[in-house]
Every structure is written in structure tokens, then in C-alpha cells.
Fold this sequence. Notes:
Bound molecules: cytidine-5'-monophosphate
Number of helices: 5
Strand order of the largest sheet: 5-4-1-6-9-10-11-12
Helix content: 25-40%
Distance between the termini: 17 Å
Order of helices and strands: EEEHEEHEEEHEHEEEH
Largest sheet: 8 strands, mixed
Amino acid sequence: xxxxxxxxKKVVITAGPTFEPLDPVxxxxxxSSGRQGYAIAEKLVRDGAxxxxxxxxxxxxxPVGVTRLDVDTAQDMFDAVHAQLPCDVFVGVAAVADWxxxxxxxxxQKKTTDNELSxxxxxxxxxLEAVSKHxxxxxxxxxxxxxxxxxxxxxxKAKLASKGCDAIVANDVSTGVFGSNSNAATLVDLDGFxxxxxxxxxxxxxxxxxxxxxRIS
Length: 217
Ligand code: C5P
């Protein structure tokens, strides 16, 4: 966008799951719908930001005015994010796989007579942490998400410190947020805890736009 409170600000957002292949036809993924990241992209572009959305595989339309880059793996998402730096704001909403298969089979794996199968996984890079700790191109504002089922505020505060980001949106998923609309979220930053009013992903997007405007104007 050209007009609006975020005009001239470049925002990079990750959204959705990643897909980590095991062989040409199989892989490891998760149930992230991408809806929260897409809602944030939609709101920020409406408020005038230049928004690049780096998306894992999801079944969602691209919000009007948003530049969307599709990726599958965490490593591809990491590379796509770094290719977008410098930016003013980074919001990591994607549910990035912590692990990928150490070896990806080049042919479809056949069923064997064994009753067990072992796969060795190796750690994926942490995109949020790498952006937060970038020596030359750290965005002015770096925001992450955290889903917790217990000790929401303790874990979110610890995550804020370990990842080096400026704020964490902590979601209480103990009541089952996946596929539901009841969603109790709190923003954690160096000033403390701010409960986010409202229940929906659009409410969280609205809150974040106001927060970003306050932090980078
Ligand atoms: O450590 P945890 O996965 O709970 O942290 C969640 C936050 O970190 C989210 O903002 C997510 O997008 C980000 N993340 C990431 N790269 C990873 C793992 C998580 O950017 N490999």
C-alpha cells in the first residue's frame, strides 16, 4: 500500500506449516492452516505496509496487495526470509518443523518385511532466532509466536530471551485452538504482559498492527 500508518515500512511475515520430504512422494508436516499469518498480512497491507508473505503449503488465497512467496521446507523458508532482508519488521508466524530427515530418498521407498522403521532427523535452523540475532540486517522489530498448553507467561518470557526477539504473541492452546475460534493470547515484551482483547485471528492482527505502529513510528 501507499497510504496508511505503515506506509513505507517493509514487513516480512512467515505463515503456514513447512513440509519436509522423506522421499519423492512422502513427507512430514503439521496442521497449521496459515490463517493467523495471512490475517496479519492482510491487515498490515491494508494499513499501508509493503508486505512479503513467505508461506508454507496452505489452501488460502493471497490477500490483495501482498507479495507471496511459496516454500516447502524450513531451509527454503530460512533462505527466502534472508533474501528479503533488510526489512523494518519481521513477524514469524509459521509453524516451522523442528526436524528434517537426515537423508531424503531419491526413489519412493518400498514397504519391507520389517515391523519397524527408523528415520534419523537433523535439526532445522530457527528462522526467528537467526533474524533476531542477525549481526548486520536485524529488523527494527522482530515478533514471534508461541503456542503453549501450560505456564503460558513463563515459557513466553523465556522464549523472548532465548530467541532474542522484541515480542512474543503467546497463545493458550490448552483448550484446543486448532480449528476453533476461542483463542486467549497475550503479548510479551520487555515491558511485560499485555492481554490481547478479542478472540479471533483478525483481532490479533488488529492488535499487532497497532503495536507495530507504536513501536516503529
Ligand atoms: O520454539 P518455538 O517453535 O515454540 O517458537 C515458535 C516461534 O519460532 C514462532 O514464531 C515460529 O515461527 C518460530 N520458529 C522459526 N523457526 C523454527 C522454529 C520456530 O522461525 N525452526
